[in-house]
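Here is an idea for our session: we take a single protein and study its fold together. Which protein we use is up to you, so please pick one and set it down. Once you have written the record down, we can walk along the chain together:
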Amino acid sequence: MSVQSNETSIQTSETPLGRDDLARLVAKDIAPGSFVNLGIGQPTLVSNYLTEEQNITLHTENGMLGMGPAAGGDEIDGDLINAGKIPVTELPGASYFHHADSFAIMRGGHLDICVLGAFQVSATGDLANWHTGAPGAIPAVGGAMDLATGAKDVFVMMTLLTREGASKIVESCTYPLTGVGCVTRVYTDKAVFLTGPDGVTVRETFGTTLEELQELLPIPLKAAPAAGRRDPGAP
C-alpha cells in the first residue's frame, strides 16, 4: 500500500512519544476558552499540562465543572474525584451538580472537546471504546456514548498498536461501536492522525517515517499539507 503524498517529511520527534509527552501535545492543541471532558485512563493526564492562559474549563461526568490537575499529598480530598475515581484539585469558580445535569451538559452539545481512549478507530472516525466482545469481559460504556455524540470534537488518545502488534486504526471497527463518524483526531505514540469522510491524514510522526507507518496500518495514509501541520517548535 503506497503513501498518498509527494511530501512525506513530517517526522517531528526522533522517538515515539510517552504518555506524558502525548498528554502535553494534546493540551497544547486545545483552543483557549474551550469546555473539555477528559475520559478515564490516559486522557486524564491532559489536565496536568493545561496552562492558566488557555482558560480551559474541565468537565467531569460525575458532576463538576472547573476541575484542576490531579491532586497529590495534602491536596487529596477523598470526596473530590474525577470520573475515573482519581483525586483531583478544583480551580477558582468550580461548581458541582447532579449527575443528570452533568449528562445534560454532555448530551446538549455544550462541550467543545472530549478526549477519550479507544480500542479501535475506523478510517472514517467511528469509535469503539467500551467493549472488545471478549468472553468474560465486563462492558463499561459509562458516558462514552453521550460524549461521543454530544461533544463538538472527539479526540482519541491511545497506543497505535495492540500488544500483538495489530493497528488500532482500522478500515472498519470489529468491536461494538460507541459512536459513528465522531472522531476527528487520533493521538498515538507514533503519530497524530486526522480522520473523517475522506479517510486518514497524518499530521506528524514520532520516531518513524510516513512510509514506515504505512507498513503498520491496513488503510491508505495521506500526509497533511504543510499549512495544516503543527509547528513542532510552537510553545
About this structure: The CA atoms of residues 77 and 98 lie 19 Å apart. The first helix runs from residue 19 to 29.
